[in-house]
């Protein structure tokens, strides 16, 4: 049920209601062109029709609003050039504010068969207020969006509920990923999913595309026969004979958390409030790996942070084209199916998304400049859940692995990089997705961990976080809200002025560049990290023969995935290695690592590439021929194009590009094109792999890379390439 406007008079009341003070305007968001600070968005209704053959989505959007000031001249929404608006209309809110209007969609494009009309919604009793057309215009805003200005009637009063109805179609939208059947595992039916984080959903539907604004939403989706539709909401009805799906989200969420997926998906229950959805061929694997576990994680989180608020916690496994690992969409976590073969990464990624149910979804960062409020807190909560479930040693191992990656990223960016701040400054025109990095997660985590240490007891800090969630749930916050709440909850710490301790001031945590001011004590994980460090030291010691003999006695097949990944990352950090060391490593580990999961294999293959170790290049080729996901292709292509293996990379890409999503294909084309200026000649003694790749590299490269899908268009992938 939609929230009632603050000016709505109770039935039977004679006097005019006393209005509460106006809500404070949302924090200014330079990534949004909208006039969100002038309105209260009460509810949005979406009517959507999926047209996979045309790769088009037709939509009817109803926004239920109140103006916070009298006579606003216009409503400004975030939009996108991919979104074509057909009409805009105004009407005063019906007597039953939650009753939607009947949706009518724009007609399909030329040459397509018109679909049957959608069933009309139940109408409110009595006469429904009439709609009147509104003038609108679309203006440029940034390279990731436009502004849509809709003129409003001049007599509109403050706090008077009204609706704006927009009909539109969206084609080639960054938020909407259409997949041909051959890009799915089953190769049977088309597939589509949306990815809204950070600012892509403005190409899905016109909106206040800022995390500062939240509202409830409902949706009706019409899909082709045999296609299953899911959304980040509760599915309230399904009319199978007509392929119409109904959804409702009862809690306020920001626009970026409205998500949709449709395809050949089947469900299986894995717990009392959870099920997995996947293509039929993947469903047994997904079920076996998660059955019972998700409920265990949810229960642990509830003991720490209070009741789970979203009803169901379902998971949908998406094809490899999904551009990130996972996304915390409420009620329905999206996760890439490629991660299924890496059990420990799967566990950590799902638990992280579970933690977002409290930190990120219930309590959200009000601006993209403070994403650490969602990601840092979710990472802390994730590690508290893993400690409760799997013990401190495993949590410390995973943390050491991630902090290693943080310091690796810091070396690349430099300690004075402005994006290493927790309160990073977002300049106008910069896509907020470009601010997503390991500092958001791990530096944010270190600050939250530091706060937990100040109070001296992790359980007391859990109690604080539970109170923080209860106070701010379904709202958006800034860092000061968190820190003020912390000092209020622990008045003894406020009296000690812990926020001003020299070198560890809260302000410095937020605004200093570089590494975290303090890092957690990971000694409880030494039983797992010490063997990794010892093996790495053996391989970098001299003489090599003795070191290799000692190292070969250590059976890494019994290690945890994070141990092996940490060991390989250390070797990657030391690359290029002496050629005799790489030869010995290959002799000792190559066959074994080739039988392990993709998270292990890609790290070994990066070592192969960074050290130009030609005898194992056939493994690189085989890996790239079997992978269609960004996370397992882009790192290898970047390494291949940095050294002497550009010709090999070009040849592999030429053979595999037809199996890649166009967005990923364009991103790889851009990587390859950046290396065209350098010589593509193979080394003096090329392997057969290199010789075959180099044969026609010069003649084919420009035609391959600069054809219809030029690398300059790769921005559509980068726009959504964020971690969740």
UniProtKB/TrEMBL annotation:
Q: List UniProt keywords, sorted A-Z.
A: Aminopeptidase, Hydrolase, Metal-binding, Metalloprotease, Protease, Zinc
GO function terms (MF aspect): metalloaminopeptidase activity; zinc ion binding
Region of interest (Disordered), ranges = 675-696
Low complexity bias spans: 686-696
Q: Name one GO biological process term.
A: proteolysis
Cited SMART domains: Leuk-A4-hydro_C
Q: Which InterPro entries match?
A: Aminopeptidase_N-like_N, Aminopeptidase_N-like_N_sf, ARM-type_fold, LTA4H_cat, M1_LTA-4_hydro/amino_C_sf, M1_LTA4H, Peptidase_M1, Peptidase_M1_C
Q: Which cofactor does it need?
A: Zn(2+)
Annotated positions binding Zn(2+) = 352, 356, 375
Task: Give the top-rank taxon of the lineage listed in the UniProt record for this protein.
Answer: Eukaryota
Task: Please list the residue ranges annotated as the Peptidase M1 leukotriene A4 hydrolase/aminopeptidase C-terminal domain.
Answer: 527-672
The catalytic residues are 353, 441
Q: How is the cofactor bound?
A: Binds 1 zinc ion per subunit.
The keyword Thylakoid is annotated on this UniProt entry: no
PANTHER family from the UniProt entry: AMINOPEPTIDASE RNPEPL1, LEUKOTRIENE A-4 HYDROLASE
What does the similarity note say?
Answer: Belongs to the peptidase M1 family.
Q: What is this protein identified as?
A: Arginyl aminopeptidase like 1
Species per Swiss-Prot/TrEMBL record? Cebus imitator
Q: Which gene encodes it?
A: RNPEPL1
């Amino acid at each position: 049920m939609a929230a009632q406007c603050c000016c709505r008079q109770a039935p039977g009341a004679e006097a005019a209601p006393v209005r509460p003070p106006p809500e404070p305007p949302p924090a200014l968001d330079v990534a949004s062109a909208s006039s969100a600070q002038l309105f209260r968005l009460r509810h949005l209704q979406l009517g959507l029709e999926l047209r996979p053959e045309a790769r088009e989505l037709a939509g009817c959007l109803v926004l239920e609003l109140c103006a916070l000031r009298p006579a606003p001249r216009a409503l400004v929404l975030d939009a996108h050039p991919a979104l074509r608006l057909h009409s805009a209309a105004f009407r005063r809110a019906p007597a039953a504010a939650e009753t939607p209007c009947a949706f009518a969609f724009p007609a399909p494009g030329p040459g397509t068969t018109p679909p049957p009309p959608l069933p009309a919604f139940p109408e409110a009793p009595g006469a429904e207020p009439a709609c009147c057309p509104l003038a609108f215009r679309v203006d440029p805003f940034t390279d990731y969006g436009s502004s849509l200005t809709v003129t409003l009637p001049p007599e509109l009063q403050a706090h008077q509920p009204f609706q704006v109805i927009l009909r539109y179609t969206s084609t080639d939208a960054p938020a909407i990923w259409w997949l041909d059947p051959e890009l799915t595992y089953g190769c049977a039916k088309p597939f589509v999913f949306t990815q809204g984080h950070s600012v892509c959903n403005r190409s899905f539907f016109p909106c206040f595309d800022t995390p500062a604004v939240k509202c409830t939403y409902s949706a009706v989706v019409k899909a082709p026969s045999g296609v299953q539709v899911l959304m980040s909401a509760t599915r309230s009805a399904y009319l199978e004979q007509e392929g119409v799906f109904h959804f409702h989200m009862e809690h306020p969420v920001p626009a970026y958390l409205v998500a949709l997926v449709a395809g050949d998906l089947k469900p299986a229950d894995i717990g009392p409030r959870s099920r997995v959805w996947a293509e039929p061929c993947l469903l047994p694997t997904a079920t076996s790996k998660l059955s019972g576990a998700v409920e265990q994680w949810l229960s642990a989180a509830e003991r720490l942070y209070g009741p789970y608020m979203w009803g169901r916690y379902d998971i949908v496994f998406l094809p490899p084209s999904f551009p990130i690992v996972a996304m915390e969409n409420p009620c329905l976590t999206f996760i890439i199916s490629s991660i299924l073969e890496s059990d420990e990464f799967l566990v950590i990624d799902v638990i992280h998304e579970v933690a977002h149910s409290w930190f990120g979804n219930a309590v959200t960062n009000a601006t993209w400049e403070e994403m650490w409020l969602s990601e840092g807190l979710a990472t802390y909560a994730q590690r508290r859940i893993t400690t409760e479930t799997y013990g401190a040693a495993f949590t410390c191992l995973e943390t050491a692995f991630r902090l290693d990656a943080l310091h690796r990223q810091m070396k690349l960016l430099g300690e004075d990089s402005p994006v290493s701040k927790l309160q990073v400054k977002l300049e106008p025109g910069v896509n907020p997705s470009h601010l997503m990095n390991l500092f958001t997660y791990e530096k944010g985590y270190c600050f939250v961990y530091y706060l937990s240490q100040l109070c001296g007891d992790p359980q007391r800090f859990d109690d604080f976080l539970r109170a923080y969630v209860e106070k701010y749930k379904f709202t958006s916050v800034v860092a000061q809200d968190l820190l003020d709440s912390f000092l209020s909850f622990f008045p003894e710490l406020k009296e000690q002025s812990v926020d001003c301790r020299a070198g560890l001031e809260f302000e410095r945590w937020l605004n200093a560049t570089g590494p975290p001011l303090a890092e957690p004590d990971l000694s409880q994980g030494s039983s797992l990290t010490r063997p990794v460090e010892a093996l790495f030291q053996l391989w970098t010691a001299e003489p090599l023969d003795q070191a290799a003999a000692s190292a070969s006695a250590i059976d890494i097949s019994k290690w945890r995935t994070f141990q092996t990944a940490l060991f390989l990352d250390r070797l990657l950090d030391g690359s290029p290695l002496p050629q005799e060391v790489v030869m010995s490593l290959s002799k000792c580990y190559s066959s074994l690592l080739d039988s392990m999961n993709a998270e292990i294999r890609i790290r070994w293959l990066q070592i192969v590439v960074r050290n130009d170790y030609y005898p194992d290049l056939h493994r690189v080729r085989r890996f790239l021929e079997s992978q269609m996901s960004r996370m397992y292709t882009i790192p290898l292509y970047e390494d291949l194009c940095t050294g002497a293996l550009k010709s090999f990379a070009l040849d592999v890409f030429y053979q595999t590009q037809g199996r890649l999503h166009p967005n990923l294909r364009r991103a790889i084309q851009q990587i390859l094109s950046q290396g065209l200026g350098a010589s593509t000649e193979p080394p003096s003694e090329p392997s057969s792999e290199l010789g075959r790749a180099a044969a026609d590299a010069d003649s084919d490269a420009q035609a391959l890379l600069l054809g219809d899908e030029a690398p300059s268009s790769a921005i559509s992938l980068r726009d959504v390439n964020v971690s969740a």
